[in-house]
């Protein structure tokens, strides 16, 4: 996800955590011979039962094997997941019941190998439910999500397995494990404990009940929000689209025709709604579009999510208490850089008051032009008027330079200059895609032409596809099993133009594209031995993506790719100067809309008594924080997919702010070198920040890269705020 418009004040980020680690951790991998011997031992432990289901088979075809999208159906996927669970169950039983004493090879490496057929099926499952989302896949999702949750609990609750993992971790030094092996064993032990492995039988049964109920609720929430987003505002008369740029008018007309309507349609997704709110002159229509968008999941109908949210937060609170934590946030933040809700709140509150003060200034400027009070559906519209008046900058001047395909080529160029990756379209028809719109690119190392992986680009909105922008990995090459390539995708929701017309996107959309591409570059760069060390902390994972947004307006990319779609001329420096001069414009709005969502998230998940009336809680929480009436949360609770389609970002939406301190400090490092494509800094960034995954402590890794903790003043300079 993309969100860079923040500010903070104060000293070192890591100083806020109280948990910085001193000294470097050498995450040295074992020798090739040692790895091979570990693999031999691990494979001997596991049963050799070939899978029967088609979608469990090893992927075949070119590029080291690719997902068989052309063979995927909902019934086949259901069959594969059900069988995959059984195969994984047998593998886990073999590891847990091994009569040999526990070792790193026969326990930890065997765990890394277990469940590979199921992994292949669930990779396909995640794509079909998020990117296609038809009724048949939704039915499979509803059925198998609780089964997958229960299968995960079954592994965690396996007492013999847990005791073996704990024995390996507790005796790591005596066994002579490398730092990387020790980290894998200790993190596995600690994760098992955090997730209930140390509970008694009754506690495990109760936790299993809670987790299954949550899995069902997450699936239902996702499907309800997607259904509410598959709506639109029909505009039959041209007066209703007055003020819209031609490219947005064309997209709205295409959206109407696709729905067998005359006139124009504003689809209920952000990429369609935000341009309408920014440029449409009809105030009443702006309000109508705005209300439809912000009330997704909150209409008192069959897609209303409020009761589900109340159920989710109640279940989360019960789980936290069962596991010995005061609340859900305390439990979720054990394995983050911030570590505690208090550290995250301290950072957010240091931002909140200056952000609100900036909103008051912005509203005063807009009211002077509007001649009336500013309502939330007015903010973007009049902000654009103020931008034009203050900086002589019209967003419509920028869009002709950001043609979608050109922006993608600019992102590819950034990857080549920084990391030596090249992206080449694969021959048509040689690699199946999950939808005809998907483009596939081969990724290679420019230095020697060696193959790295494939990049799937899924750019367009469609019914059933979830909203927003995100990155997905289908497969990553791990060092423990001979390496291999990586298969990753970026997924956006741009509105497709008709008849081959160019798709012009905003600067914000271009930054979003570079952001998600930054996630892909992170995973394409991985040189991680064990899959268990692949996932970085939630408040670190957005850092590599956020920093890549800065390169959008770098001169080499502007000159080479962001050229006017009609004249072919690069963006003139005078226009770039206007953009830079206005770069801190509207930061009150951007910061408050994001940060209000993060604050309410943390407030919700630290309550001693979970609320039952979610709308009332949201209003009360915002009132206590002093939310400006002219702005709405970027993600209101009834549609907050980050929080309620899984646990992933729950009590963790603050992570964008936490990551941005490192992002700004890293960009300053490049700028201060005099070359934003500095090859030495880029090489160290790739090898330390990107390639290591979570093989070493990420705070210590940043210090190895930068030579110190991140400097918060760098972010203040980026945002145009005083540094003292």
TrEMBL record:
Pfam families: Peptidase_M3. Its cofactor is Zn(2+). PROSITE patterns: PROKAR_LIPOPROTEIN (PS51257). Keywords: Hydrolase, Metal-binding, Metalloprotease, Protease, Signal, Zinc. Residues 277-718 form the Peptidase M3A/M3B catalytic domain. Gene3D superfamilies: Collagenase (Catalytic Domain), Neurolysin, domain 3. InterPro entries: M3A_DCP (IPR034005), MetalloPept_cat_dom_sf (IPR024079), Neurolysin/TOP_dom2 (IPR024077), Pept_M3A_M3B (IPR045090), Pept_M3A_M3B_dom (IPR001567). Residues 1-22 form the signal peptide. CDD domains: M3A_DCP (cd06456). Binds 1 zinc ion. Belongs to the peptidase M3 family. This is M3 family metallopeptidase.
């Amino acid at each position: 996800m993309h969100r860079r418009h923040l500010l903070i004040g104060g000293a070192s980020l890591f100083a806020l955590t109280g948990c910085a680690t001193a000294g470097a951790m050498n995450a040295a991998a074992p020798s090739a011979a040692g790895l091979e011997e570990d693999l031999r031992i691990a494979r001997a432990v596991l049963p050799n039962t070939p899978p029967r289901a088609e979608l469990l088979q090893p992927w075949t075809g070119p590029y080291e094997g690719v997902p068989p999208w052309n063979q995927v159906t909902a019934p086949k996927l259901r069959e594969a997941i059900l069988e995959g669970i059984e195969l994984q169950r047998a593998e886990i039983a073999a590891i847990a019941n091994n009569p040999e004493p526990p070792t790193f090879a026969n326990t930890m490496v065997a765990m890394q190998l277990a469940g590979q057929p199921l992994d292949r099926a669930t990779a396909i499952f995640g794509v079909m439910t998020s990117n296609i989302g038809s009724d048949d896949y939704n039915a499979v999702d509803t059925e198998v999500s609780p089964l997958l949750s229960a299968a995960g609990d079954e592994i965690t609750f396996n007492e013999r397995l847990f005791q073996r993992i704990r024995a390996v971790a507790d005796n790591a030094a005596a066994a002579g494990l490398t730092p990387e092996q020790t980290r894998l064993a200790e993190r596995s032990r600690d994760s098992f404990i955090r997730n209930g492995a140390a509970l008694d039988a009754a506690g495990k049964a109760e936790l299993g009940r809670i987790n299954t109920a949550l899995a069902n609720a997450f699936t239902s929430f996702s499907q309800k929000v997607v259904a509410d987003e598959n709506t639109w505002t029909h505009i039959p008369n041209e007066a209703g689209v007055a003020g819209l740029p031609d490219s947005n008018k064309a997209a709205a007309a295409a959206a109407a025709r696709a729905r067998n309507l005359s006139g124009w349609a504003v689809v209920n997704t952000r990429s369609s709604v935000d341009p309408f709110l920014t440029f449409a002159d009809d105030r009443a229509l702006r309000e109508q579009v705005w209300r439809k968008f912000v009330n997704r999941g909150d209409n008192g109908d069959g897609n209303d999510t409020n009761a589900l949210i109340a159920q989710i937060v109640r279940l989360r609170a019960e789980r936290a208490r069962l596991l010995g934590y005061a609340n859900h946030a305390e439990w979720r933040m054990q394995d983050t850089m911030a570590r505690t809700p208090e550290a995250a709140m301290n950072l957010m509150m240091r931002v909140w008051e200056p952000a609100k003060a900036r909103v008051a200034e912005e509203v005063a400027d807009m009211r002077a032009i509007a001649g009336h009070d500013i309502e939330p559906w007015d903010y973007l519209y009049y902000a654009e008027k103020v931008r034009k008046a203050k900086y002589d900058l019209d967003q419509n001047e920028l869009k002709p330079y950001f043609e979608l395909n050109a922006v993608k080529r600019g992102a590819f160029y950034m990857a080549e200059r920084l990391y030596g990756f090249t992206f080449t379209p694969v021959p048509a028809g040689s690699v199946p895609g999950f939808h005809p719109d998907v483009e596939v690119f081969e990724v290679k190392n420019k230095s020697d032409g060696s193959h790295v992986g494939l990049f799937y680009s899924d750019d367009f909105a469609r019914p059933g596809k979830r909203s927003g922008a995100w990155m997905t990995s289908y497969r990553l090459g791990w060092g423990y099993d001979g390496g291999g390539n990586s298969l990753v995708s970026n997924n956006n929701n741009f509105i497709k133009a008709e008849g081959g017309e160019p798709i012009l996107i905003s600067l914000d959309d271009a930054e979003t594209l570079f952001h998600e591409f930054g996630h892909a570059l992170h995973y394409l760069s991985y040189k991680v031995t064990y899959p268990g060390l692949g996932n970085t902390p939630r408040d670190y994972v957005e850092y590599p993506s956020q920093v890549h947004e800065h390169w959008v307006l770098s001169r080499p990319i502007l000159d080479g790719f962001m050229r006017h779609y009609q004249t072919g001329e690069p963006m003139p420096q005078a226009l770039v100067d206007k953009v830079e001069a206005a770069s801190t414009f509207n930061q009150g709005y951007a910061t408050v809309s994001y940060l209000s969502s993060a604050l309410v998230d943390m407030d919700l998940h630290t309550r001693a008594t979970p609320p039952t009336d979610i709308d009332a809680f949201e209003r009360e929480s915002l009132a206590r924080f002093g939310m400006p009436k002219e702005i709405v949360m970027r993600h209101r609770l009834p549609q907050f997919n980050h929080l309620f389609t899984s646990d992933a970002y729950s009590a963790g939406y603050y992570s964008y702010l936490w990551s941005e301190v490192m992002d700004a400090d890293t960009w300053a490092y490049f700028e201060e070198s005099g070359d934003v494509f500095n090859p030495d800094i880029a090489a160290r960034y790739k090898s330390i920040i990107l390639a290591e995954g979570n093989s070493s402590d990420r705070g210590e890794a940043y210090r190895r890269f930068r030579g110190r903790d991140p400097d918060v003043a760098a972010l203040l300079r980026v945002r145009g705020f005083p540094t003292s």
